[in-house]
Amino acid sequence: MPTVLDRWAENVAGRQQLATIVATIADAGIRLSRVIARHDLVDYGSVGGSENADGDLQKALDVFSHQLYEKALERLPLTFIASEERELLRELDPGARYGVALDPLDGSSNIDTNLSIGTIFSVLEVSAADLFEIPPGKCQRVAGFICFGPQTRLTLSLGDGTQVFLLDPESGEFLLVEDQVEIPPARPEFAINTSNYRFWDDNVRHFIDDCIAGQDGNLGRDFNMRWNASLVAEAGRILERGGVFLYPGDSRPGYGSGRLRLLYEAVPLAMIVEQAGGRACDGNEHILGKRLESLHQRVPLIFGSHDRVEEVIDYISGQALETTHFPLFEHRGLFRN
Predict the structure, then answer these.
(1) Closest CA to 282 of 308, 254, 316, 253
(2) DSSP, residue by residue, 150-218
(3) Low-confidence ranges of the chain (pLDDT < 70)
(4) ∠ CA 22-25-26, rounded to 5°
């Protein structure tokens, strides 16, 4: 990976700083992967057990991950560090050029079940003072995520395509395995938590009903459903296989504006997906054009193959007006008394 970053940064003003930030995050991710591999054998002391800024219960590994990345990044000339695990923006050098936003450990509910978890990060060319004045997607220069699964993979966009690096356990380095990722079009797969079906609005239900109906529904094809409860795992699969991921807003208290964070989840993933030929939106607005109203602002998120996302937008906007005769679980009555 250092060779790739060095080549990218060579003789281009400002890029060396970006390369150093990315290399620092990658190195911290390598250290974190070793801790995750030994998770049940690690003594984290008294960390964990409290709530983060959004009211989510922090596990010990959440806190450890946050501290690991923050300690690594605070040595760099950054204007700020924003983290899901920190209530307020941490302002550092007001004269610096770049700031970092990150979700140190995505998919915490999977920690104890040995399923994929990860880190999502964004490097933005903006001051702490201007962060709420400019849409973060407009000043984002680098985006990436690390998925800790059977393999540890770093997916990265430096603004010119999307690349994938694999952590080689022998050398302890990230090695390039995919130089220009392109999301396959027209893949009949969708990822959504169907247990929330009863809380969705009618247009979202309509789309899922038609996916479930398969060849007999309005979409005219059979679909597969996937759900990992890990945003990085879902994103990695879609980059390789195509399809669409949906986490819409719903009628539950606190979920009306979605659940995923704009700054350090939706915006970096949107850049990565769109640099791979896909699309990301909240159902109406382009994610990369949304203005940040609060540090931990939540949004609905839909991303995937360009054609699949367009399909979902047609349903959400009401343009897919035909009604389906195959509502989800109609015959089995799973959600009925």
Answers:
(1) 316
(2) SSEEEEEE-SSS-EEEEEETTTTEEEEEESS--PPSS--EEE--GGGGGGS-HHHHHHHHHHHHGGGST
(3) 46-57, 321-337
(4) 85
How many CB atoms neighbour CB 210 within 10 A? 25
Q: Is-same-fold flag (2-178; 189-316)?
A: no
pLDDT by residue (tens digit) across 132-144? 999 999 999 999 9
Neighbours of 259 (CB within 10 A): 20
Query: Where do we find the tokens 């367009």?
Result: 310
Give 174's contacts (C-beta < 8 A, 6+ positions apart).
Answer: 1, 26, 30, 154, 165, 166, 167, 168
For the whole prediction, is pTM greater than 0.85? yes
Separation CA 316–CA 249 (nearest Å) = 11
- 189-316: what CATH class? alpha beta
CATH architecture type of domain 2-178: 2-Layer Sandwich (3.30)
Q: How many residues are given for the chain?
A: 337
Task: Give the pLDDT confidence score for residue 186 in this predicted structure.
Answer: 81
The three state secondary structure string of 251-288 is CCCCCCCCCEEHHHHHHHHHHHHHHCCCEEECCCCEHH
Provide the token pair at 15.
């890029």
Q: At what angle do helices 15-37 and 60-73 cross, to 10 degrees?
A: 150
Q: What residue ranges do the domains of the chain occupy?
A: 2-178, 189-316
pLDDT digits (tens, 9 = 90+) for 307-333: 999 999 999 998 875 544 445 555 444
Let me know the angle formed at the C-alpha of 253 by 251 and 256, rounded to the nearest 5 degrees.
50
Rounded-to-10 torsion of CA 152, 158, 159, 161: -50
Q: Is the separation of the CB atoms in 58 and 50 below 8 Å?
A: yes
What are the structure tokens assigned to 1, written together? 């990976």
